[in-house]
Amino acid sequence: MNLFLRSAMLFFSMGSLLLAEAQTAKGPWKITGDEYLHSKEVSVLAYHNHYPVGKLGGIEVIHHDQRIATNGMLYFRHRQQLDGAPVPKPIPDVAIPPRTVHPESSSIRLDFAFSNIDFQYAIHVLPQEDGAFGINVHFEGVEDLSLLDTVTFVMDFFPGSFKGKSYLSDRGDLGHLPYDFHSVITASNSTSLATGSQITLAPEDPERTIAISARSGQIQLLDSRSTEHNHWFTIAAEVVPNGTGPWVELVIQPNRWEEWVRPPVLAHSQVGYHPEQAKVLTIETLADQGVPEQKAQLWKIGIDGKEELVMEQVPKSWGAFMRYHYSEFDFTHITAPGLYQVRLGDYASDVFPIKESIYEQGVWQLSLNTFLPVQMCHMEVKDRTKFWHGQCHMDDAIQAPSGTQFFDGFRQASGPTVYSSHEHIPGLATGGWHDAADDDINAGSTGRTTYDLALMIEEFGMRYDQTTIDTVTNEVRLQRPDGVPDAVQQLVHGLKWILANYQVADHSFVGVISQHWETYLQAGGWGQMTDNQIFQPAAESAGNPQAINDDRLIFTSKDSRREYLMASLLAASARVLPQSHSHYAARAKQVAREIWQREQQAAPVIYDNVGTPRKLWVQKIIAATELYLTTKDSKYLDFLVASKEEVIQNFDEVVWALSRVEKAIKHAGFQKAYKAELNKSSKRMAARYSETPFGVIMPNQVWGYNWEILWDIYTKYYLSKAYPELFPADYLYNAIHYTLGRHPISNISHVSGVGTHEPIPAYGVNRADFAYIPGGVFSGVEIVNPDFFELKDNHPFLWQQSEYIVFGATPFIFSILAADQLLTTD
Ligand SMILES: [Ca+2]
Ligand SMILES: [Ca+2]
Ligand SMILES: [Ca+2]
């Protein structure tokens, strides 16, 4: 059977929902081994995810391959609660209920009980007639609602799936779900769009139509974006006391038909391939829709519209992974330069080139010439006719008080602080990059960005110059060369912030962050986030209306692991700065040596913080290698020899650094242990990289995988460079292909502005404009437990999928330059 000729479009063309329903069967419900309700067309997840703030949790609905609803849960406040929460608190936020499956009825039961209140309830998910499913909520030991405040069953519906589509209720409310929020906001809430005992969404779109009915009580359709852009549309169902029967009884009917087929994903690098690279296009299908059996074809696109079939082959099965099946179409032996396209039945990939100069232009440059400058703090940034942001945060920074546990993981240890609480620390309004879309500079992210820049200058030269950076006026002008290599200028920008720490104290700081949650979350321009005036309490008491206490807090707690990281990046920076910046080189080298000396003489200080590395020995060993490379002082090699046991214990994390100094270590015992472990490490890595269909490591985590895949870049590059027979460069190329489109569920490039698709709006500082920052690298495809991959391409507010971070971009630049170097020097 030709699976893919049976296109779902056939059924769309019938035009009418009723026709589609009348003539097609619905896939039967079953409970999967992962304990969710499933048919071919719809899955209902039952508390498989526990990240409601990221719109991931509770009851969730995947409808024709789109997760259209999430956070189906009971919201209430119990009057016995003593936590003083000022607003109704979603109790399931903290509760992970036990799940019981009843295979005979294909139903799922979730039991909720609480340690601090005498109250239980259960949610049942169960099949209903005509392909629908039900959600029932039973209360136990409760007679009425007198102990519950603001109780309602809610479920959020994805704006990207429904905005612009219509809705109607059986009471006669109807209209379109708005692109932008415009409901009337009252003191406590916003007005509902519709009320009734049945509400139907998107009746005009058979693939999206869904009807929600309540057997008793009313349901409301709300636009929940009244407070934050990232919220969704909400269905809120009334809770009606009903003795031992269900107090909420919803019937949810997603329109569906068993013959629905999801098109295959033809996943490949959107920018194309170097002739000498392995070239594997990965074909993804839903596992329960079978595997492609026809031949895939590679076509070469000629001038004058001529096309040539250059190879065809039945794709080779890789096997099942999550809910998908993967096959591989390997055209590695095709090396002739040209434009190509892969076709499979009715489906075709994007057109991509094969050519030797594939990584030279238009791949990494936007990350250096646009994304990194836009993230620069304490500068004004203009890009031709666009104003990115004004000079910002010139009022940095005031000392965070002792013992402050803050948002985004910033922590100030109890005990003495560098300055007094809330006192302004001078000299910190310089350098650094905004960590992400948020209003902070973190030593970890600015440090790792600086480190990436130093090593890429060392390895690849980096004479590229497209940006003017005026360090006198603090103005940045994009697409305007100034004769100084951009990577050097960015490196100096990172060093400025880090070295400023060491002007104030004998250690680095955690970072600076907005004092206020509201400012911290504010999208828009960084230039206006504070008033750029240093706050002076005396001015406030004198009634100065200009003085606003909006200066960012600096968290100054020391950590020895971070100190060694700083020593590493400062030592590396000192090696690569040109004569024109010798002042920074000298200072970086001096501080790096002082850090080593200080830390060797005292017991380590360990205080966990966001951006602070976790493993002391890993950081120590890497610092010793960098300091040796910079100073050629043999004491650092002696340290490595003396630390042989720790080197072996942490081998996979430090071997990239050691590969650069290994030949200088003339110690037979060390050499023997190192070589033996190197062989073992090679086998470990080969096993790990073969675990997924993409030749990359994809751990089970809330966040998308792409940064982690790129953060491994030093290991991939330096080991392939030093020991190519043990560590093939394919690990590096696979990471690049993944980033640029060869990944699950779509072929979207994870680098904004690079690739053949229109860039998706991403979670950057301009997210509320549904915009993106060219060259930003977002976290990408994430796992929705237990077995679904997701990357919402029209909704920039799922930070775990589309957030940019500054040290997501630099390892991408490094990767592309590394691949170019390895491919062109072979
Ligand atoms: Ca941050
Ligand atoms: Ca420049
Ligand atoms: Ca201020």
UniProtKB/TrEMBL annotation:
A Gene Ontology biological process term: polysaccharide catabolic process
Protein's UniProt keywords contain Ribosomal protein: no
Keywords, ordered alphabetically: Carbohydrate metabolism, Hydrolase, Polysaccharide degradation, Signal
GO molecular function, one term: cellulase activity
Domain Glycoside hydrolase family: start-end pairs: 386-759
Signal peptide, first to last residue: 1-22
Pfam families listed in its UniProt record: Glyco_hydro_9 (PF00759)
Gene3D superfamilies: 1.50.10.10, Immunoglobulins (2.60.40.10)
Family, per entry: Belongs to the glycosyl hydrolase 9 (cellulase E) family.
Record-given protein name: Glycosyl hydrolase family 9
Species classification: Bacteria, Pseudomonadati, Bacteroidota, Cytophagia, Cytophagales
